[in-house]
Structure formats: structure tokens, C-alpha cells
Design a protein that fits this description.
Layout lengths: L5 E4 L9 H16 L3 E4 L13 H12 L22 H13 L3 E4 L3 H13 L15 H9 L5 E4 L6 E6 L3 E6 L7 E3 L7 H11 L4 E5 L6 H11 L5 E5 L19 H7 L3 H10 L13 H7 L14 H14 L2 H8 L9 H11 L9 H4 L1 H4 L17 H16 L7 H15 L3 H13 L7 H8 L1 H18 L1
Parallel strand pairs: 1-2, 8-9
Antiparallel strand pairs: 3-4, 4-7, 5-6
Helix pairs in contact: 1-10, 6-7, 9-11, 12-13, 16-17, 16-20, 17-18, 18-20
The chain binds one RNA strand through helix 4, strand 6, helix 11 and helix 18.
Length: 483
RNA sequence: GGCGCGUUCGUCUAGAGGCCCAGGACAUCUCCCUUUCAAGGAGAAGAUCAGGGGUUCGAAUCCCCUACGCGCUACCA
């Protein structure tokens, strides 16, 4: 066994970059780098029907965003390329035929129609669907004549019908399958492209992958892979099957029941470091029990012994909570910088810079900033007059209060801070028989258009005297009309 | 159906025979702080460790059975 440590992720470019890809990238990369090895990206695009051309770039973009870029891969260089499977087809073709020559595989001329009919018969008889090995023992003449007629064929593995295959999983221990349970799977499709099982083994061998770390869903096909390694006469890598991320109903995580696109998380304003932290908590834990930690910690501490065997539910609520913690840990300047990509072009950036710190404790995603701060950047949103009315009061109470507040604010010159007007406000409240809180609430609604807002003092200071006064005027008018 | 992998608070998990009548985090609830909402602080509630058998002086931890969940069972990956 080569002493080099090389790990890989092998996503299919079939759609949006998947959260599961990030999950696997995290642990593969952390382990590889922990051991001073390499982390490789390989694109498994042998299914042309599901191929999506923009996908490779998006996978790369997402990995870069998360800080999980591979050392080798398409567009990244490396000595084991090409890193895209369709560019390696000759290798699979050659390998498959090599297996045929050695008697471990055979050409299958069965048509899809025959296979389909077979499946239906089996279903009708309530038998498990499996290939009947129709072409396994074709005579030399039959094969030759089929070939002469250029009948399309696939190549199938000749699975021994005796014995069993065992492999060691670094997370789960030894796993054994009876060979007779395996069908003769197709290795090479009739279009000459390999099926996953062939491609993954050939590539992992030639790319000198030392540890195959992938999702649990691959356990069932691992004996097949092990068989291939042996038939080829290659060293078998080490395997580790990570638990499968789940929907809340415990089924395998899916687009229908979860946001699986990394693009979505980025657009929503989840911080990459929060994403990593959350993903690392799925099926793994720090030896010291800490729950807020970064990629460097994972890289330093990762071991397969600490990986859980049961599939964790992907809980957006917890992710969001972690995200909030990371946002709060940002300095004001950092927060503003991070916010920039989420702000509309026409937004006043200097004002946004002042607003950001005020929002820090209230933001759970960067993408929330705009909706939470609209009143800072445009007119107050429409609100009904009775929003201004104190709990046990009337519209005319509100109007009276606003008149006095207006007078107070007008008497102040710029620049102004809340120290300038706060005591005056309390006097007004006293005079009107209002609680200070009630009066502040009237002002809050006048200034922000809502009973729920960022802190009043800071908001007013950012808005400035003139803007606040005009909003108070507007509120006063509203209250008077309603009186 | 067959095969495989799993099963500790609602969720993520700690736990590798006695430290556990099970600890932490998120969520929930209460209180404090407070001009709202948050944030922060302090508490509460929440798991007969899936169930049943063993092994052992002693089991969440080891073994067996059952149940349940999930995965695979494609010329998808």
C-alpha cells in the first residue's frame, strides 16, 4: 500500500452544488491535510442524460466559498489528470476489456427491452429483480456472430457464485456480503462509457486514492468494488462510510424536503465558517466537546473513531443559530464587508456602514439586512394610525404626545445625540401621564413605522435631525386625522 | 421481498463495564437586563439509553433475538 495519503470527492455535475458534496469535502480534505496528503476533486460525468454544463464551475465556486478547495482537480492542476471522467473513457474501455480477457467479465448483448421484460416477469412472480446471466456463458461462435452483426453490448462483471467478500470500514468495522447476493452488474454501458462502479475503481486506483471516504449509501456496492480491485490485481484502498444527511423524516436528504443547494445558503447569507461548523457537527464532534469551532480545528482533530454511525437530521434552525453566533463575533468593519455583496447597488453604503453595527445582534443571516433596515434607506413604510396609539390611549393622546416631541426635537441643534433629548422625553411623558416606554413607542413607530425595530437612539442618530423631524410631522398628521 | 447499515432528551450529540437514577448544544418555557425586538445572563422542563433476553458483583456501554428506521437492489451516481 502506498504510504501517500490521497483522498477525493467525486460529485456528479447534475445540478446545483449539493450540501452533501460540501459535507464530504470537509472531512475528506480535513483528513487528507491532517495526514499531510492531498485532497482531489474528480468529476463523475458519465451519465450524459443528467449532465449540467455549468455545474463543475459551480461546485468549484462553492468549495472556494467554503474554503474547501481541493489540491487537484479540473482547472486546479495536478499530476493525476484528467479529472473529468468523460475525458478518461479510453482507460475504462481498456480496463473493462482487460477484465473480459482475463475471464472476469463478459459481453452482454441483451437489449433493454429484454431486460425490462425480465424485470416484469420477475415482478409478476414476486421475485427480486436480478439479471438472469443470459449472456454469461455465450459460446465463442455466438459472441463472434453478435460482434460481426455489430450488435451493441455492455460488459458485465462475472461475479463468483461462491464465497463472500469482506471489507473493513474505518467507521463501522468489518462488513461482509455473500457473493451470491450480487448480480452480474454492468461495468461498461453500450455507449462505451463506464458505470459508476467501474469508473470509481479505475480512477481511484490510477489516482492513487488511499482512503475512500464517501456516504453510507455506497456500502452496498463496496463489495463489488473490492471484487474489481482484486480482479484487476490492485491494492484495495481503505474505506470509510460517513452517515447520510437526513431530512426531518429521516429519509436521505433531498431537494424536495430541504434546501440542498449550496448556492441557496450563500444567497441567504449563511457564513461559510458557520456552514463548516454546522456540517462538522453532523456525525462528528470535537474531542473536548466544544461546539463552536473552525475548519482548522477539524483538520487538527479529525479521526474516524469520532464519527457517528447514525444519520443526522439536517436542522436549519440549528444552522441559523450557529450563523447568528458567527455574525455576532464579527467586528463592525468585518460585518460591513461581509454585508456588501448582499446590498442593492443603489443603497447608500456609508449609511449602511453605520447601520450594520446596530443590526449585528439581530441578524441571523446576512441576507436579512435589507428587509430589516428598509426604513433607514427609504421613506417609512405605510402604517395605520392606531399603531401610534398607546395601549390605554386614544389617537388624540398620540397627537398631543407627538406635538410635544416635535417641539422638543426642533429645539435641538445638530449634531445631536440621545443625551440631548432623552431627559426631555421623560419630562414629556410625565406631563402627559404616560409611561416613558409608551412615549418611546410612539416615537419608535413614527421613526421606523413599526413597533419592532432596532434601538431607537441609534436609529435616530443615524437618520439625523431633519429626517426624524419629517417623520414625526408625518406621524402627527396621521394621528390628528384619526382623532 | 432480499441484502446491508443503523437505533441515547423534539433535533445535533457526549458516553468506549462502575465517575451516568446519563452531560452539553439547538429548539421550548420562566425569570433577570431593557424604550420594542434581539443579544446577553440565570433557571426549568425534556431520554425507563428502541424492546426483550443473556454475560457480569455491576451494562447506555459486551453477546443474542425482535421491532422499527434508513440505504442499496438501474446501460443513475
Amino acid at each position: 500500500m502506498a504510504d501517500k495519503v490521497r483522498l477525493r470527492i467525486a460529485p456528479s455535475p447534475t445540478g446545483d452544488p449539493h450540501v452533501g458534496t460540501a459535507y464530504m469535502a470537509l472531512f475528506n480534505r480535513a483528513f487528507a491535510h491532517h495526514r499531510g496528503g492531498k485532497f482531489v476533486l474528480r468529476i463523475e460525468d458519465t451519465d450524459q442524460t443528467r449532465y449540467n454544463p455549468s455545474s463543475v464551475q459551480e461546485i468549484l465556486d462553492s468549495l472556494r466559498w467554503l474554503g474547501l478547495l481541493p489540491d487537484e482537480g479540473p482547472g486546479l492542476g495536478g499530476d493525476y489528470g484528467p479529472y473529468v471522467q468523460t475525458e478518461r473513457r479510453d482507460l475504462y474501455l481498456k480496463s473493462a476489456h482487460e477484465l473480459v480477457e482475463r475471464g472476469h467479465a463478459y459481453r452482454c448483448f441483451c437489449t433493454r427491452e429484454r431486460l425490462e421484460a425480465l424485470r416484469q416477469e420477475q415482478a409478476a412472480r414476486r421475485e427480486p429483480p436480478r439479471y438472469d446471466r443470459h449472456c454469461r456463458d455465450l459460446s465463442g461462435e455466438e459472441i463472434a456472430s453478435n460482434l460481426a452483426e455489430s450488435k451493441p453490448y455492455t460488459i458485465r462483471l462475472k461475479v463468483p457464485d461462491e464465497g463472500h467478500t469482506t471489507f473493513r470500514d474505518l467507521i463501522r468495522g468489518d462488513i461482509t456480503f455473500e457473493n451470491k447476493e450480487l448480480q452480474d452488474p454492468i461495468l461498461l454501458k453500450s455507449d462505451g462509457l463506464p458505470v459508476y462502479h467501474l469508473a470509481v475503481v479505475v480512477d481511484d486506483h490510477y489516482m492513487e486514492i488511499s482512503h475512500v471516504v464517501r456516504a453510507e449509501e455506497w456500502i452496498s456496492s463496496t463489495p463489488l468494488h473490492v471484487m474489481l480491485y482484486r480482479f484487476f490485481g490492485w491494492d484495495v484502498p481503505l474505506f470509510a462510510h460517513m452517515p447520510l444527511l437526513r431530512n426531518s423524516d429521516r429519509s436521505k436528504i433531498s431537494k424536495r424536503k430541504n434546501n440542498t443547494s449550496l448556492k441557496w445558503y450563500r444567497e441567504q447569507g449563511y457564513l461559510p465558517e458557520a456552514m463548516i461548523n454546522f456540517l462538522a457537527l453532523m456525525g462528528w464532534s470535537m474531542p473536548d466537546g466544544s461546539e463552536i469551532f473552525g475548519y482548522a480545528d477539524v483538520e487538527r482533530e479529525f479521526t474516524f473513531e469520532r464519527v457517528t454511525t447514525s444519520g443526522p437530521v439536517f436542522d436549519l434552525v440549528k444552522l441559523t443559530s450557529i450563523n447568528g453566533k458567527y455574525i455576532r463575533a464579527l467586528s463592525d468593519d468585518e460585518l460591513f464587508e461581509r454585508l456588501l455583496p448582499y446590498l442593492p447597488e443603489e443603497m447608500d453604503k456609508e449609511r449602511a456602514r453605520k447601520v450594520a453595527p446596530v443590526l449585528k445582534d439581530r441578524l441571523t443571516r446576512l441576507g436579512e439586512f435589507v428587509e430589516l433596515t428598509g426604513f433607514f434607506f427609504g421613506p417609512v413604510p405605510q402604517y395605520p394610525a392606531d399603531l401610534l396609539v398607546p395601549k390605554k390611549g386614544t389617537p388624540s393622546d398620540a397627537a398631543r404626545a407627538l406635538e410635544q416631541v416635535k417641539g422638543l426635537l426642533e429645539s435641538l441643534k445638530q449634531p445631536w445625540t440621545h443625551e440631548d433629548w432623552e431627559s426631555g422625553m421623560r419630562v414629556i411623558a410625565d406631563n402627559l401621564g404616560l409611561k416613558a416606554g409608551d412615549l418611546f413607542m410612539i416615537l419608535r413607530v413614527a421613526v421606523t413605522g413599526s413597533k419592532v425595530s432596532p434601538p431607537l437612539y441609534e436609529s435616530m442618530e443615524i437618520l439625523g435631525r431633519d429626517e426624524v423631524l419629517s417623520r414625526v410631522d408625518h406621524a402627527l398628521e396621521l394621528a390628528r386625522k384619526a382623532s
